[in-house]
Amino acid sequence: MARLTINGRTRDIEVDPETPLLWVLREQAGLTGTKFGCGVAQCGACTVLIDGVATRSCTMPASAIAQDQQIVTIEGLSEDGSHPVQQAWLALDVPQCGYCQAGMIMAAAALLNSTPTPSDDDISAEITNICRCGTYNRVRAAIKLAAETMSTSQKG
């Protein structure tokens, strides 16, 4: 049994302690926005936030999550898609196939939480998710747009 706080809700989930968090989220919690990609924490499709830090969930055992840690999935980033990163993604038509985008959005949200006005080097260092469609230029532009939006909303 694991007690996990996912998207602000504490859940008791019966699971083998070594089950990767990704499968707990998808199969036990029913949150299928987090995707399986490579299974070795390289591609980033499975990225979620744990206490605000972008974390690859496909290799993170459920037992490694402390009861007081906060897990946020794409479903919990905002209830209605109004998070500035999600809005920037829509405004700039970032996705093509979209498979990797939930992980990309989560990684971008974590970056902007820690670095509100990231440079190109910051983005390159932190956004290591893989996109087979190659939308990297649009991802970078959307991160910058979201940063501007967040900066403007904090001033006003």
Give the structure's gist in a few sentences:
The chain contains six helices and five strands; from the N terminus they run E-E-H-E-E-E-H-H-H-H-H.
Structure characterization notes:
With 156 residues, this protein is an alpha+beta fold. The protein is 39% helix and 13% strand. It contains six helices and five strands; from the N terminus they run ββαβββααααα. It has a five-stranded mixed sheet, with helices on both faces. α3 crosses α6 and α4 crosses α6. The mean pLDDT is 96. This is (2Fe-2S)-binding protein. Keywords: 2Fe-2S, Iron, Iron-sulfur, Metal-binding, Oxidoreductase, Plasmid.
Topology:
Elements: E1 2-6, E2 9-13, H1 21-28, E3 47-50, E4 53-56, E5 70-72, H2 74-77, H3 84-91, H4 101-114, H5 120-126, H6 136-155
Parallel strand pairs: 1-5
Antiparallel strand pairs: 1-2, 3-4, 3-5
Keywords: 2Fe-2S, Iron, Iron-sulfur, Metal-binding, Oxidoreductase, Plasmid
Pfam families: Fer2 (PF00111), Fer2_2 (PF01799)
Protein name: (2Fe-2S)-binding protein
Helix content: 25-40%
Largest sheet: 5 strands, mixed
Helix and strand run = EEHEEEHHHHH
Distance between the termini: 45 Å
Number of contiguous helices: 6
Strand order of the largest sheet: 2-1-5-3-4
CATH topology of the largest domain: Ubiquitin-like (UB roll)
CATH superfamily of the largest domain: Beta-grasp domain
> CATH top level of the largest domain?
Alpha Beta
Structural domains: how many: 2
Binned strand content: 5-15%
The shape, in one word, is globular
Q: What's the Cα radius of gyration?
A: 15 Å
- The average pLDDT value, as a whole number, equals 96
Pfam families: Fer2, Fer2_2
Domain 2Fe-2S ferredoxin-type: 1-77
Keywords: 2Fe-2S, Iron, Iron-sulfur, Metal-binding, Oxidoreductase, Plasmid
InterPro entries: 2Fe-2S-bd, 2Fe-2S-bd_dom_sf, 2Fe-2S_ferredoxin-like_sf, 2Fe-2S_ferredoxin-type, 2Fe2S_fd_BS, Beta-grasp_dom_sf, Diverse_Oxidoreductases
